[in-house]
Design brief:
Length: 216
């Protein structure tokens, strides 16, 4: 369960699911309890307790390892053990040098490679990020310009989660700072932090583009 969904967040969705289950039980209907595992990029103290209080069964922070996901889910449902995937060698572009830079955490990229040895999953995730991240940044800039703290928080939260998933840890940390300020309606000075996020995003995009197959 994504804790930060738009319109209705994961906490409210979970409360409604649990309320529906209680209604069915009160009416004498047999309903299997739905296991709900929180999925969030928020690792702040108290987040786990907040998820459990809403009725969730467990808690995973992004980015996560395949084993963490499997171990957590297997507590509630029967799963077949995931197959072992040999680590993939770093992508080497036409220039002959392995891709590397300070904008991305290689461990996060390796996690995606472990999920799909063909590399197609990583390519799809990167392509989706390249299409959406600049749009989220523009949304954040527009929200700040109009002093709309709620829209600003949503835009940087979305950018933060996607960036963290791909290992753009510095950008994700900057987005988290902005998100916390927007949550507290403290917008003064955020133009500087948002400009920093824009510069960081440029570096992230450059490194991600180098991971995609080059067109002939």
């Amino acid at each position: 369960m994504d804790c930060q969904m738009p319109d209705m967040d994961g906490y409210e969705a979970t409360r409604r699911i649990r309320a529906w289950e209680a209604e069915q039980a009160a009416a004498g209907r047999l309903v299997r309890r739905v296991p709900i595992i929180a999925l969030t990029a928020n690792a702040m103290r108290g987040s786990r307790e907040l998820c459990l209080a809403a009725g969730m069964d467990d808690y995973i922070t992004k980015p996560f390892q395949q084993k963490t996901l499997f171990d957590t889910m297997s507590r509630y449902v029967r799963l077949e053990a995931p197959c072992e995937v040999p680590p993939e060698q770093p992508h080497v572009p036409a220039g002959g040098k392995p891709v590397g830079g300070d904008a991305l955490n290689p461990a996060s990229l390796d996690t995606l490679r472990e999920l799909d040895q063909s590399g197609k999953l990583l390519q799809r995730v990167i392509s989706a990020y390249l299409a959406d991240a600049p749009r989220q940044l523009k949304n954040a800039q527009a929200a700040l310009a109009s002093h709309n703290a709620a829209d600003l928080r949503l835009a940087v939260h979305t950018l933060k989660s996607a960036s963290k998933y791909l290992g753009a840890d510095t950008l994700a940390a900057t987005c988290l700072e902005i998100e916390r300020s927007a949550t507290n309606f403290q917008l003064v000075g955020l133009d500087t932090r948002l400009a920093a996020a824009a510069a960081q995003l440029e570096h992230v995009i450059d490194e991600l583009q180098s991971l995609l197959p080059q067109e002939a």
